[in-house]
Design goal:
Layout lengths: L3 H29 L10 H11 L6 E4 L7 E3 L4 E4 L1 H4 L4 H18 L3 H30 L3 H38 L5 H38 L1
Helix pairs in contact: 1-7, 2-4, 4-6, 4-7, 5-6, 6-7
Bound molecules: zinc ion.
Length: 226
C-alpha cells in the first residue's frame, strides 16, 4: 500500500507542513515580540527568576547572537537566549525564556525523555553527517542496495530522535506556561499569546518528525519494490 509514489507524496506534504510551521513561528514571534508584558521583565530576568524559584543555581544564562537561536545546552548547563529574547520584555520573550527554563528543570529532575534524547544525540549527529552523502549518492547512482540500506539506518535514527524530541518539547512548553502564570510574570490574557508562540514552535518539531518518518517509509518502499 505504501508505494514509493505514495511515500513521495507524503514527503511533499511534510515540506508544506514545515514551511507553514516556519512561517507561523516567525509571524507569532514578530507579533508577540511587540507586545510588552504588564510585569515588564526581560527574557533574561524571567529565566533568572524561574531558575531561582526551581532551586537551580548551576545553570548559566548566556546571550547568544543567533536570531531565534534560543536553546538549553544540558552538557554545559547553559541557557542560551538570543538578543530578541534576552533583552526584550515582550510576551514572546517571556514564553521562550520560560520554555528554555523548562528544559533546565527537566534536566534537574532527570526527566526520562530528556535523558533518552541526550543519550541518542551522538548517534544522531553521525546520522546527520551521513545524510548529504545519501542524498547526493542517490541522485548520482540511483538508490542502489548499499545506499538504500544506509539511508534506512540513517532515517531510522533520525525518526527515533525526532520522536523522543516531541515529549521533551511539549513538556517544556507546558511547564513554561504554568510557571509564568504561577509566578505572576504573565497575566492569563498574556498567556494566550505565549501559547500561540510556543504552539507554533511545537508544530515545527512535529513537521521534523513527520519528515524523517516519511523519508524512512519512502526508502523502505523503494527497497520493498526490488
Ligand atoms: Zn525546546
Amino acid at each position: 500500500m505504501l508505494t514509493p509514489q505514495v511515500t513521495f507524496l507524503l514527503i511533499i506534504f511534510t515540506v508544506i507542513v514545515a514551511a507553514v510551521a516556519q512561517f507561523r513561528v516567525s509571524s507569532a514571534f514578530n507579533r508577540f515580540s511587540r507586545v510588552r508584558t504588564r510585569r515588564g521583565m526581560t527574557g533574561a530576568e524571567v529565566a533568572a527568576l524561574l531558575l531561582e524559584r526551581a532551586g537551580i543555581h548551576d545553570v548559566e544564562i548566556a546571550r547568544v547572537e543567533t536570531y531565534l537561536g534560543d536553546h538549553y545546552d544540558p552538557t554545559r548547563k547553559r541557557l542560551c537566549l538570543s538578543p530578541g529574547v534576552f533583552d526584550s520584555a515582550s510576551v514572546a520573550a517571556a514564553g521562550i525564556a520560560a520554555h528554555e527554563c523548562g528544559h533546565a528543570i527537566q534536566h534537574a529532575h532527570a526527566y526520562a525523555p530528556l535523558k533518552a534524547r541526550m543519550a541518542v544525540v551522538p548517534v544522531t549527529m553521525v546520522a546527520s553527517q551521513l545524510l548529504p552523502f545519501i542524498v547526493i549518492g542517490g541522485f548520482i547512482f540511483g538508490y542502489v542496495r548499499p545506499l538504500l540500506d544506509l539511508g534506512i539506518a540513517v532515517y531510522a535514527v533520525l525518526t527515533v530522535f525526532q520522536l523522543i524530541t516531541l515529549p521533551v518539547e511539549f513538556d517544556a512548553s507546558r511547564r513554561a506556561r504554568l510557571v509564568l502564570v504561577q509566578n505572576g510574570i504573565v497575566t492569563r490574557e498574556e498567556d494566550s499569546g505565549v501559547a500561540k508562540v510556543l504552539n507554533a514552535a511545537a508544530l515545527t518539531y512535529v513537521a521534523a518528525f513527520l519528515s524523517a518518518l516519511f523519508h524512512l517509509l519512502h526508502l523502505l518502499a523503494l527497497r520493498g519494490r526490488e
